[in-house]
Amino acid sequence: MASYEKQGESDEWYTPAYIFEALGVIFNLDVACPPEGPRHVPANSFYSEKSLEREWSGFVWMNPPFGHQSTKRLWLRKFFEHGNGIALLPDRTSAPWWQEFAPLADAVLFVSPKVKFERPDGSIGEQPGTGTTLFAVGPEGAAALLRASSLGQTFHPARRNAA
After folding, report:
1. Over 70: is that where the pLDDT of 140 sits?
2. Mean pLDDT to the nearest integer, 10-33
3. Is residue 61 part of a domain?
4. pLDDT the model gives residue 37
5. What is the full DSSP assignment across 107-132?
6. Which helix (H) or strand (E) holds 46?
7. According to DSSP H, which parts of the chain are helical?
8. Is residue 24 part of a domain?
9. Residues of the chain with pLDDT > 90: what percent?
10. The domain containing residue 141 runs over which residues?
11. CB-CB contact of 128 with 3 (8 Å)
């Protein structure tokens, strides 16, 4: 549970439509769709269960569970192995998982101001204590983040040289 959630509230938080409008793309697959179905995600197919066990195809959208860093690592490993999509993640630049995976992205967008996610009932949640980043892998995702300049600042991570 994130610091901005109240005890007993749902862990389900949906990406607001303006994020997708700014990206201006249609995804082939939403790999972490809530069981209740998609909200605003412009995708042709949706996985809501056992996504990490299934094969992903095409250009993917990933807003994974924001739980423990070990969970994030599983999702990010699969995302980068797939190599084509955009992932929405908490902006935790000092976290080990963030430091591990950000350099693998073709582009990273720091969303500003903080995203107010939607609850399952459609109401807008409180502003979270942390910001949001979008990781892109592949040329289509990187181009979408560059087009989405209204969302914040986009950077291209420096590639680490192999020692």
Report:
1. yes
2. 88
3. yes
4. 64
5. EEEEESS---PBPTTSPBPPPPSSEE
6. strand 43-46
7. 17-23, 69-82, 96-101, 139-147
8. yes
9. 56
10. 17-155
11. yes
* Residue in 132, 129, 133, 124 with CA at minimum distance from that of residue 3: 129
What 8-state DSSP symbol labels residue 90? E
CATH number, position 146: 3.40.50
User: Total domain count for the chain?
Assistant: 1
Strands 152-155 and 131-137 come out as unpaired
| pLDDT for residue 130 is more than 80 | no
Q: Between the CA of residue 101 and those of 11, 32, 96, what are the distances in Å?
A: 24, 19, 9
Q: Are 84 and 137 in contact (CB under 8 A)?
A: yes
Residue with tokens 């807003």: 63
The answer to whether position 10 is within a domain reads: no
In a domain, 43, yes or no: yes
Count helices and strands in the chain by DSSP H and E runs: 4, 7
Give the total residue count for the chain: 163
